[in-house]
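Quick start: what a row looks like.
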Amino acid sequence: MNALYQDIPWEAGVWTNQPARIKTEGGQLSVTAVHESDYWEKTLYGFKHRDGHALLTDLKRTEAMEVTFLLEDFRELYDQAGMMLWYDDVHWIKMTIEVIDNEPNISIVVTDEYSDCSNFPVPSWDGKHVTFRVSPFEDAVLIRVRTEDSRWMTMRLARFPYEEGMKAGPLVCAPIRKDFRAVFTRWIRTGTDKAQHEDPPVL
């Protein structure tokens, strides 16, 4: 264990919904999503999806969490993997790389009874390892993302005020594709961000 962070074993998490297939090998977690799985609440489309796959463990307000995965074979609309921050069925945040308009996008969905979504294209990230980081900050959370050769980018400061009961961990969904698989390579706990405009260390 590194003094700056603690590895979280894959078996420490509990799935919100069981994926189609799971395989652990060489310290990595390979997850194949169930066809038509997703998380979304009502906005625009009117439907509710609560059948995505999030591997969750407890997250305290005194700690941050990071999830790393390989951005490989994301090719069909809405293929997505990343990280879920969870309180309950209608209060959660998902942070993913998601295929939109035929290219990978950073996609942040904040749900407070209703879902909203923001997207930012990152076509140059294809084939790289992507790390999402969530850090409680006052009554909110700071959401950051990077690749192995980039600095942290702050993508969202979102209200998420819960003192207890938060959970977080890897996420994969496949709203359209029948055989989408994501490979997660790292899951850690570490210290919270010191300031909104100060990058955390690259661990």
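That is the whole record. The two ends are 12 Å apart (CA to CA). The chain has a mean pLDDT of 97.
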